[in-house]
User: Fold this.
Amino acid sequence: MARAHHDVLSVQWIKLELIRTAYATRGGLFAAMDPRAVVVWYIGLALVPWFTHNVTVLAGLFVLGVISVALARVGPLILGLFVIGAGFEILYLFIAAWLFGGNLDTLIALAVLNLKLGVVALASMAAFVSLDPEKLSDALLAFRAPQMLAFGVSYGYRMLPILVEQFSDVFESYRLRVAPPERPGLLGWRSGIQFVQMAVLSFYPIFLNTARSVRTTVEALETRGFTRSTDAGSSRRLRLARLRITPRDVIVPIVTAVGIVAAFSVGEMYPIYR
Assistant:
């Protein structure tokens, strides 16, 4: 369904993008998979880059990450933040090499670490954008994680829309009560500083509201016997009964493994080491 608004730089758009990201509403390949298969796929792709310093292999893994992000339908907000961060990293590489008298070897050495971090970041975006709170919690339970940890992850995801809404309300109230600077300055730097100050001040009321909400939730759960139910294995079996491994859940990790092997093979033929 097409969006009804086009102001992509508004606070409302950012809020909607965060909620879409947290609740995996965009669909995509990984959103249709079993959460256990997605977690296994993510762990494999996120660990492999740390076992090589071959730039050719890392470039191939980076391409796999880009393909995964495209298949996962990652939203423009997350992609934009990643591109901006990558752009600053590239700028940092050239500045660091120039200031410290480096050469091509210095750039390659710095590029190795940034390529590894880039592969992990792309895999993280593809995996966690495709997992809603329930799926991620079920995957943790399936891997025998403590039930309180699984509940904490799920609860944290559910608190995200509330926190974003509260931040928007508090920030807008500050904007209504605080007068803009009389002289904005060159390129409006005084207005920018005031904007940042209001954003920082908006977090303090949210901390208090979050603590109160968490306390209310914990008390409500305890009155219904939440802690006692987590000790029983029947609750875990009941939650995991709907999980099913399909052919897609097997094919995707296998294809990814083939791509990783191909990247290492190309890296052996055309090696570029740190």
In short: The radius of gyration is 23 Å. Confidence is low (pLDDT under 50) at residues 1-7. The chain has twelve helices and no strands.
